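Protocol step 6 of 9: fold each sequence in the batch and record its structure tokens directly after the sequence line. For illustration, a two-sequence batch is reproduced in full.

Sequence one:
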Amino acid sequence: MFSAILRRELLTPLRRRRMVVFQIGLASLFGLLVILRWPTDGEVALFGARSREIFRLFAYGLLMTLLFLLPVFPATSIVSEKRRGTLALLLNTQLGPVHIFAGKLAAVMAMAGMILAMSLPAAGTCYSMGGLSLYGDIGKVYKLLILVAIEYAAIGMLVSSFSQSVDSAVRTTYGIVLGTSVLTLIPHYFLQGSQGLLADIGEWFWCMSPVAALMSITGTEEPGSQGLVTKIDVLGRYTIFSLTTAVAASIWTIARLNHRLFDVSRAAGTMSDDLSWSAKLFRRFFFLVDPQKRSAGIPSFVNPVMFKEFRCRRFGRLHWLVRLVAACATLSLGLTYATTAGTFDWGVETIGGIMVVMQVALIILVAPSLSAGLISVEREHGGWLLLQTTPMATARIIWGKLLSALLPLLLVLCATAPGYLVMSYIEPGMGQQVKRVIVCLLLTAIFAMLVSAAVGSFFVRTAAATATAYAALLLICGLPMLIWMGRDAPFGHRTVETALSFSSIAAALSVIRMPGFQNYDLVPMNWWILGMGSIASILILLIQTHRISRPQ
């Protein structure tokens, strides 16, 4: 019975033609990462310095690939069964929750094993150059990658058991991946060098990230470490955290795999308009935006598609937007405090670089979740045909949908702006740099939104559209950073600068003069690239929507 679930979960995606392209692309990508740093003079450096540089680039590329591609499989495994009605059939068979979960988890791990198997030739090439230990260097990296696969497979399946739609499961899983791999690095930067309970908490948060564990294995210098050397067993702590998280998530998911999973009861609730006068007055003073108040009609001078998107999307309702903006403003105030407290020790540039990384990570997390499913969700549920029956033109429909994604992004950017204002007040000479950083972030938000919408218009399934949009954005932002890691050997300054011109995060870091990026002049070239990419995305979106709007 276990093998039946495994065969069903694994053979279905492997039969698709796109999986063959996926495998060939993975092998080509890993080979390209090695070729880019392969010695051109036929000589190998002493002590294996060049082989370690090649292996470091390869290891980061492999971790990035695993984090980008793997989560979509466990995130859709249970919720897709629930949506199709086949999960109830599985629960009525002799298969118990343990067998169902084990079969699905084994299928996800088999997909992870396929990704790792595609990388073995490139890893063997790095080992053939010498200077690497098979069990010490390469073995530790693959051990880390297996732990990453187990952890995020269990988390993705737990999220899938709670989700009611495939796209929400994918968004939540990618948000957890981004939070545990990137955002957990931030407290350590603020608290490094200090003593006490907060410093210990920052170290444990640091050890939760697989990126930090890979840094310790490959000997990569921590960006922004200010020359401080830590003697933490990062890999050991990450092993404890990942296995504990995987076991807890697995037990929780198995406990939820029963018929109560389909019993989602909700209170009928009472609309505020139907309450007494005193109750309505109390709710008016208690709530900034009352979530139980009936919405007013749509004015004739606004785009009705924008209102439709806001009212049908959970985070589009005004009270959820207020909560999102409040959370971002609270985060910005915390960063502002860190800026004022740490300026005298670190310098404004370093803390500004940390703020840029956090804001770009927030944009990459929010933008695809808002705009990748603008078209695909309508095609998946039949709403696109209904929109075509309205007297609105296709361009007006697209404009209303884009506005529904753009306005929340602008609110998020405005809520996280006070930190930069404090920086410019502390260091008046940084006023021009802060303005350029804000422009970079604004263009990044517009570019991320338009690219996600253009990518999503080619898909009928929202989950595939969201996952592809995340992968495209992370590839655009992450691949130039891999080339930056190979600066000076073998890539020259001009090559690295050209590659970084395509990355919005690198442009913002160069403007803020973050250590490691201060020697690269990426503005205004990055602005031109983002602008042309945004225009190209709009054209692709219009052409694709015109194509799917023709009579079938």
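Sequence two, same batch, same settings:
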Amino acid sequence: MQAALAALAAAWLAAGCATLPGGDTFAFKTGELPPVPTGRTWPDPAPDVRNQRARGYGLVDMPEMQAYLDGLLARVKTAAGVPDWPGAVYITASGDLQAYCTGSGNIYLSLGWLASAESEDEIVALLSHEYGHVYLDYHQLEGAADAADKVATWTTVGVVLARKAGNAAGWGLADSVLASYALGKSVLVPAWGRQQEENADRFGATVSLRLGYSFTQGFKAFLERQDTWEQKNAALREAQQQRLLEQVKQAAADNARKKSTAQGNDAINQTVRELEASLESGGAGLFQNLDNGMRGLWDQLTVSHPSTAGRLDSLTAQVMPLMAGKPRPRPSVAPWTRALAQRRTAATLKNYQLAADAQGALQAQDFARARKLALEASSGPTARQALPLMTLSLAELGPGGNAQGMQRAGALLDRNLQSEPDRSWTVYVTRASGLLGAGQGRQAGQVMEQGLSYFSDAPAAWPDAIRFYGQAGDWTRAKQLAAQCASRFSSYAGACNTAALTPAEKAEIDRRNEQKVKSMMDRLTKK
């Protein structure tokens, strides 16, 4: 079965990749750059930045650090021969090692990278790698994948699924198409991600070497740090997945027991009910593991990209001949140290660490310590920034959430909403939901309308707004917004329409899904 799937996937990928930019074998040598792409069109950067501010805790205003990073990015562009291309560097309020770029040419680095990197060489390696994605115009791939969504290119995977479940009662053609679509898309984009990452590595190494930076303290350090972080998080994800599986099984067993409460209390019926609960729990685990197994199989067939360690080995083998006989540059530590030591930058990094410590204290139910730490975190340059203020607002609420605490917490969140450089969509949602929960529906609606007006060109904000109006009981408004969202942001249509489902509609979907699962379980167990 696995061999057959591999052959089918290979044939499908060979057909699909031919339609993508550069072909499925596009590559270039480290030490050289491909010709500058021509005919580029650049999206408006303002909506792009606004959309990133609508994610997580938004962006962190760090003017001096951003100016320093923009200067490094300008050097990367010049070394690549595109000094006039757009794009700037922004900082995300995340402690993880995250970095990504967008079609506008912007690069987004997390606070975690700023706190972890040890030299300018490493930061330039990270920036040049991300700008490699921009230079190579890989954002066209997103459009190619979206276009492929609308045609029947998932047929091969669909045949496999149809053979597995297509004849089961309650499972129709539309279900097979949707399922094959999901798997097909996960095959297509990651297969290209593999080549993307390798080409971006080659681009970045070429540029950073041209700029005279150390490969060992730059690209090697960057990829080694990334690899360590990925391994740590892989272990955490595995543990979370196991906990989720246990929760699913327990919920299924509890559901089975509730359904059979009317069957009597004699010992025989009790034994039967316990058996049914055990079977339903096992069935939930079976389908969870079946899904994980299918995804695991496709992961083996189409790994999203080589492991970071593998990327480093491959890149090192290409770079070493280029460095043979040449003096090794010393790492550029002093400029990076000075950038981190700048007063406002240092205070911002310190305060975000204090906010993280405060969150730890909240988890430990130590509200006094959490409030002390969060007060300090919400001072100076971060006095109006979302994450420190959100943390302090939770500490002010305390375990009881009394009226005075809620009022103080709301005032803290308003401080963020009144600061244009720091305004965060998460705070709008939290503030509006808090007012709604306190019975202040009119004020809650005003906050949400203000937030959606400010973030109207940020598609990431719309599903939250739609859910809010559903929670407020205004399903007409929720449905209207869902239609607007689907019209303006096609890639968010599914999320927006799901957010607009009424409880009755959700219940009907759950009922249908339950029937499908039961029919598939009956077939698998030959009932």
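Proceed to step 7 once all outputs are recorded. Observation for sequence two: Residues 1-23, 141-192, 267-305 have pLDDT under 50 and may be disordered.
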